[in-house]
TrEMBL record:
SMART domains: SET. It comes from Favolaschia claudopus. SUPFAM superfamilies: SET domain. It comes from the Eukaryota. Gene3D superfamilies: SET domain (2.170.270.10). This is SET domain-containing protein. The keyword Transmembrane helix applies.
Length: 349
């Protein structure tokens, strides 16, 4: 049965508390799968926050909430709201505060450095999961990026100061203003391209050109440190190839997307099962060959260097469920019964 690696919450100079690895954690390992200590639904409007404010002040969870850093000069409650993470289910804009995951500090994604882990909410598990993006050494701090590619609209040091109240000292933020502006433009261009990428490409559009622009954008965003974008971006490459009945290249694109997504979410997901199905037989994709037959292109080999192959990752994706299976309940009941008989015999002798 897979187990989670040993980690600890410790003081980190200049950052308050943070999370470190207590043992070597190989790339792809699921580090933790955690339920929120506090969870609120629809946590977006100011009015709602105020009602949560009142509710929280009267609960025993308040102390836990107050143990998080507050924005300097900020309201003690609202100044800590930023530590909540989205736990969305459908239209419900729920947010949760997690005992360990919310202690993880930030590192920016940049061409010079990046976080060593990534978290995401898994609605099916009702948990936030954290995976290692690369090998993590014992005693190394575990960090994530608070800035998702899609929301990066500002220079990161400015965004972090305004929204989290700290001055980021990562190597990306220490670059010159000019280099940071160049990065911001590339991220912006990538986001607007992906936002308008036609999910069902219209007849008459030039698919070769579209795939070419997709490749260029994906390379640019990987260079900017957001290699995890390949999960979505490579899937777009698959869609395009599948719509033109190009099975060979569709398989290579979807394999790239699957491998990247497995690194972020694990392999116990619906996305993984769908990917496996399409890789086995791209013709099972619902838009297969809708635009007829055309040979397109495989992903640029340079993209492959940004995400490991599934085979190279440790088999540590498994979710260590705390849900008791009926077999384990029977086993523990037997142990309990034996113990009871033993105690009874001991005292009746
Ligand atoms: C989600 S909490 C992380 C845990 C927090 N350090 C603690 O003591 O509980 C986010 C806060 O941690 C601090 N922080 C996170 N990353 C940081 C970094 N790279 N440099 C300095 N402070 C950081 C900031 O105060 C930020 O508002």
């Amino acid at each position: 049965m897979p187990r989670f690696p040993a980690i600890d919450i410790v003081d980190i100079p200049g950052k308050g508390r943070g999370v470190i690895a207590r043992e070597f954690i190989p790339q792809g390992t699921r580090i933790i799968a955690e339920k929120p200590v506090i969870k609120f639904s629809g946590c977006t409007s100011v009015g709602y926050m105020e009602s949560v404010h009142k509710a929280l002040s009267s609960t025993s969870k308040f102390e836990f909430f107050l143990s998080f850093p507050c924005m300097q000069g900020g309201d003690p409650i609202l100044g800590r709201f930023k530590h909540f993470l989205p736990c969305e289910s459908g239209d419900d804009n729920a947010h949760g505060l997690f005992a360990t995951i919310c202690r993880i500090n930030h590192t920016c994604c940049s061409p010079l450095s990046g976080p060593n882990a990534i978290y995401c909410w898994r609605e099916d598990l009702n948990r936030e999961v954290l995976h290692a993006l690369r090998d993590i050494a014992p005693m190394e701090e575990i960090t994530v990026s608070y800035i998702a590619c899609q929301i990066q609209k500002q220079d990161p040091p400015v965004y972090l100061r305004e929204n989290f109240g700290f001055v980021c000292s990562c190597s990306g933020c220490r670059r010159s203003l000019q280099l940071r502006a160049r990065s911001l433009t590339r991220v912006h261009n990538y986001n607007s391209f992906m936002g308008s990428f036609p999910t069902s490409v219209q007849r008459g559009q030039n698919p070769e050109k579209l795939l070419n622009v997709l490749q260029r954008n994906l390379l640019a965003i990987c260079e900017e440190g957001y290699a995890t974008e390949l999960a979505r971006g490579a899937h777009y490459g698959f869609r395009l190839c599948a719509m033109y009945g190009d099975a060979e290249n569709a398989i290579v694109w979807e394999t790239l997307s699957r491998d990247c997504d497995a690194l972020i979410q694990g392999v116990d997901t619906e996305e993984y099962r769908n990917s496996q199905k399409w890789i086995r037989d791209p013709a099972t994709f619902d838009l297969w060959k809708v635009h007829g037959l055309r040979k397109l292109a495989a992903p640029n080999p340079a993209l492959r260097r940004y995400t490991p192959t599934l085979e190279s990752l440790p088999k540590k994706y498994g979710y260590t469920s705390r849900n008791w299976s009926s077999l384990s309940i029977i086993a523990w009941a037997c142990v309990g019964l034996c113990l009871a008989i033993f105690v009874w015999m001991f005292f009746t002798q």
